[in-house]
Specification:
This protein is mostly helical. The chain has helices at about 1-15, 25-30, 55-85, 115-135, 160-190, and strands at about 195, 200. Strand 1 and strand 2 form a beta hairpin.
Length: about 200
Amino acid sequence: MKLAVLAALFGSAAAFAPAQTGKATTALNAFESELGAQAPLGFFDPLGLLDDADQERFDRLRYVEIKHGRICQLAFLGNIITRAGIHLPGNIDTAGDSFDSYPNGFGALFGPDAIPQDGRLQILFFIGFLELFVMKDVTGQGEFVGDFRNGALDFGWDKFDAETKLSKRAIELNNGRAAMMGILGLMVHEQLGGSLPIVGEM
C-alpha cells in the first residue's frame, strides 16, 4: 500500500516537471542570457511575448519594462512619503490651497476633494512633455536600452567597470519589477480600505 501511494506521488509530481524537448535554438533561447533573466525565475515569459521575436521587439519590451519600473518606483515612494504626512511646502494654486490639503492616492485625482481639473490637465501635459522630449535617448548615443543620459547626466557611470554597470542595471530592473507589484498592491489595498504596516491607514 505504501509503495502504491509513493508511486502515485512520484507520478503526479512528474506531471509538473518541465517537458524535455530536443528543439534546436529558437528565438526564445536567444533571450535566455539577456539581462533580467536572473534567479529565482530565470527567463520568465509566461505570456509568450517573445515567441518568434527579434532583437528589436525584445529591446522595445525592455524599454517599456524599464520605463514602467522607473515610474512605479517613483509612484510607490511618493505614496509612502505622502501617507507619512510629508508634502511639498507652500500652495498648489493661487487660491491658497496647500499641497497637504488634498487627499492621498486615488482621492487626489477622483472624488469631492480632488485636485481641480485644470491641475490634473497640467499634470497630464507635464507627463506628456517628459515622455515626448526628455525621457528618451535624444542623442542616439545611449549605451543600452533605457539610457537617457543624453551626454549631460553621468553621476560617475562612466567610471564603473563593465561588471558593475551590468550589476547596477540588473538591480534597477529588479527594483522596478518589485515596485510595479508594490504600487499595484497599494492601489488594491487603498480600494479595500484598512491599515497596512509602515504605510498606515488606507
